[in-house]
Amino acid sequence: MALKLCGSSILYVIAVLCLCPRISWSFFTSIEPYEEQCYHENVKKGQVWGFLYEVSEGGFLDIDAKLTTPDGQLMYNEEKKTDDSYFFTAEHDGKYVFCLANQKSSLVPKLVYFMFDFLNDEKRYQENDEGHNKTASEVDKVVGELSIELLKLRRTQVKQNVRMETHFKINLHTNQIVSWWSFFEFVLIIGMALGQVYYIKRFFEVRRVI
């Protein structure tokens, strides 16, 4: 009986995870010098929402980022960050504004990858007439916590993939520079050898005066 109950609970958890509505967006954007780009998302109270970003190309691979709440308060503010992530539970309904700024760079545009991700599970946060949250079952609570951890794991995987691609581009660029420098050294050595042969030949050349 206990085994059947345990098996049913596991199947229920898997089914809820598969049907759990999750919404995510990911983008690559190029931010020019002195430019600021802002994006907004309507989030309901109690929803777990988050974002991550990483600079893949441009300058010292740094960017300024900030997040503003619906009432205008600055919730997140970081300067000259290569990558970061932020995850929170919304305390108010409304529009949250996320901005990326390249205002401290005067020459180089920045290519930035960023992603929005949140758990759109509204049933867990509905309120009754007395203003208290409805009691959820233990399985629902476990599923919610597990879903959040899976979201964090997914964000980490995406972040590592972007970082790996960035390092691959850096290695490729470095290899190209080394190859061109080796070719230049080869041409320089051949030129020096020919010059030395010509100089020695001229030095031992017998000149006749008529």
From TrEMBL:
An example Gene Ontology CC term for this record: membrane
Topology term for the membrane: Single-pass membrane protein; Single-pass type I membrane protein
Report which superkingdom the organism of origin falls in. Answer: Eukaryota
Q: Which Pfam families does its entry note?
A: EMP24_GP25L
Q: Which InterPro entries match?
A: Emp24-like, GOLD_dom, GOLD_dom_sf
Keyword Protein biosynthesis assigned: no
Q: What are the entry keywords?
A: Membrane, Signal, Transmembrane, Transmembrane helix
* Localisation per UniProt entry: Endomembrane system; Membrane
| Signal recorded as keyword | yes
Major subcellular location class: membrane
Q: Which family does it belong to?
A: Belongs to the EMP24/GP25L family.
Q: What is this protein called?
A: Transmembrane emp24 domain-containing 2 isoform X2
